[in-house]
Amino acid sequence: MYSMVDCYNGMGQLGQEYGSKNPLMDNANLDHVTKVIAYHPRYLEHYLNTQNFVVHCDGPLPFEYRFYIAIMAAARHKCTYLVNLYEKEFLLQGGDRSWLKGLDYIPAKLRAISDINKILAHRPWLLSKEHIERLTKGQNSWSLAEVVHAIVLLAHFHSLSSFVFSCGLTQELDTSSQKIENNNIVPQKTDLEHLNGTDGKAYLPTQNASHAPLMSLHFVAVSIPQTEVTVDALMQRMKRLSEKNTECTETELSNRFKNVEMQAAELPAVVSREGAVDVPQQIGRYVDDPNFTYQDFARRGAENIPQTFRIQDYSWDDHGYSLVNRLYNDVGFYLDDKFRVAFNLTYYTIAGRTNVDTSKFRRAIWNYIQCIYGIRHDDYDYGEVNQLLDRTLKMFIKTACCFPERITKNDYDSVLVELQHSEKVHVNLMILEARNQAELLYALREIMRYMT
Question: What residues make up the domain containing 269?
Fold first, then answer.
């Protein structure tokens, strides 16, 4: 069991060089997915500090609950890699082995979080204050602090599942040995020069970063289109938008959002030619209602379309951050730092070009992800999304967010083909964090409504 001293000793600020003595950054301590995140050390520090805080440090939930919630969250997206990883962690923390038989073998209190897990993973706009009330009333009730801790864990591992698949990483479980087969699955040579910071120093994730062992791969042919906007054309569009001085009316901004939202709903996610991905037997025991999956927020002709979530009415900066910090001490600091680093991370390079301002491209990706979940940033011109994100990239983003288990190595290779591997990882980190924040916004808004 981790002590508080161990926890905070592992969470000190890193030096700029990756060779810091921080034990969290010791390559030997990193799982294979985290080694991929290590292409971006400045983000990795905040990712590891946040994950360590919510999983290993002092908090409202007992440790066995935390690891089991991680298993439940990853199972919603059939992420065998994370399920396997946290089953082992659960047992190492002294968890009851019988719980690993499935949801029928866990305490009623823990089982009660299944409904929120399902909704947050696939249709977070359906969450209501009544879901929170049911958890906090009656026998085996949860405290609000426990609910917030659980929701932070669920959002973290849902979005981490998206990252595992969106990087083209999956795993083949050797059923005879019950061990993960680890192979080098990133065949392309990665130029690490763009990891240089603005001070000119190189931030290398590991001594042999491009040869770090990752998960083995399994893929099938898919329907992702093969044509996309070139990097040079993208740079011209970013430059033109940066120089644009005209402002839109509120009505025009609203109409452009609705247009992008409807286009996102009509855009198909990637579908393998082998059809839907079955729930593996190992995963099924942790999944309630496996047929409950993502449905488009705004479907043409659909009745009872949920109301758009407007950031001006409930934002992370003005509302979510303070509420989560009040109910689960200090977690807001870690989440806020992680969101900001992911949103602002840049090396001013793209596909070997230097001195490039990519802020327009990055914001378009972030806001498009949250648009898929029905969230509107009122001050943003969503017309930029259609100018900067082509259909190929939109399909990839939607699939990574909503049906990550469908993403294959072939999909990963087919999108953003001019970008270096670490730049694609950068895009996938934004998918991870924009989705994470979207889930938290919906959940924290309903907790606030319940409290008031």
Answer: 4-451
